[in-house]
Amino acid sequence: MTLAPTLFRVPLVRWGWLILSACLYFLLGYNTVRSQFSVLIGLYLLLLWSYSLRIRPLLINELKDNEFRPKPDRFLFTAAVLFRLLLILAMPALSNDYARFIWDGKLLLSGINPFKYLPAELMAGGVAPSFTPNPALYQLLNSSNYYTVYPPLNQALFALAAGLSPASLQAVVIWLRVPILVAEIGSLWLLVQLLRRSGRNPNLALLYGLNPLVILELTGNVHFEAVMLFFVLLAIWFWQQYGNTSRGMALSAGALALAICTKLLPLILLPVIIARLGWRRGLTYSLITGGFVVLLFLPFFDLDMIRNMLTSIDLYFRMFEFNASIYYLIRSAGYWFTGYNVLSSIGLWLSVATTIVLLSIAFDQKYPPAVRVLWMLTVYFAMATTVHPWYITSLVMAAVFTATDRWQFRYPLLWSGLVWLSYSAYRQTPVREDNLLIIIEYGAVVVLLTLEVYRYNVALKRHAEAPVEI
């Protein structure tokens, strides 16, 4: 059956949904800036309503016959791709991180290690004669006094985009978006394959594929979590495709290394892998992954790179705070008892506490790996001092793998809607967060999370079995 005849048989109501959703994505992608919070949240709420219409059947367990295996909904998967393609020409309106991507790419093209210098040092001149800084691009940077923290694969993609269109800022943004689009399409295909292999409804991939936060933040605002998530899925697919063989381990570990060299977040998966495979195989897998990571970092390696990356990571935990939850509670208590902001003094302790909790979850064999990963990501972001909206896309992806014909964790989907409230901070200059909206965001998520974890544990005891594992 070809795609065209299938589309011609689509009910008119679905075409109406597609057109309405496309118009909303167009307005958010091309005609709205983050200072227009009322417009921003209004359009986003409409998109969430549109999203709910298509995923509601997946959330109310319409699949009741375990022998029935539905086919992927071609219309909806096509819509998921079209919504992303619609944003191909848009300049990112909600984040200016792309400016640092282009800056780093131009440095690499000039033969300069992007980990070596601060943008402010380069702008002052005298440290890298081969690089001519662009004042207009420099003005867009939100990190001129911080060393880059973007790993090698990101740097390569930045340089490729900057090299393909050196004279046009918009063209470079388009080239930055291309690997994200390719990765997103690849992720949808891999999700379908992995869900089918585990005997689940492949349309559960639409929980991620049609999610407005995922579409707007990754494709629309050019965040490379999309590439990271693709390589994580590819690592799982390689392992399942080739099994416990040297080839399967090498391909899977290589794909995971590429994910880590896009964003460092997938390092969180290694304890779960060790717990799943056992210490001998798990450590072997981790060492192979680490070897690939070292090889990818090698072209950039020197002592300055290590020192500067550690400096930036340390500053991240000590200097930045945005849309946090547990940290804000600790900060408020710190103000009450000490009279000053305790971020610089408790950042390290927060990291240590987070690591201990994450490891305890990772090695808790009571729960399947997908659930452990979801909860580890939840704890990680709950303990973080900064939670930008696009961070939650990883939770949405993880939630797909915890969904079965008996159970779904829905709190990541709720969070993906409520995290948009954090853009209220940009209504004024300087940025100022709205504490009431933060309380609404996290309060609703905590209530649903608590209820779902309780019900999930009750269900485990009742059925004496865990959901199908990925």
UniProtKB/TrEMBL annotation:
Any single Pfam family the record assigns to this protein:
MptA_B_family
Alphabetized, the UniProt keywords read: Membrane, Transmembrane, Transmembrane helix
| Chain segments annotated as transmembrane | 12-30, 36-54, 75-94, 174-192, 213-239, 251-275, 282-301, 342-363, 375-401, 413-429, 435-454
Protein transport is among the record's keywords? no
Q: Which domain of life is it from?
A: Bacteria
Keyword Membrane: yes or no?
yes
Tell me the first and last residues of the signal peptide. Answer: none
Q: What is this protein called?
A: DUF2029 domain-containing protein
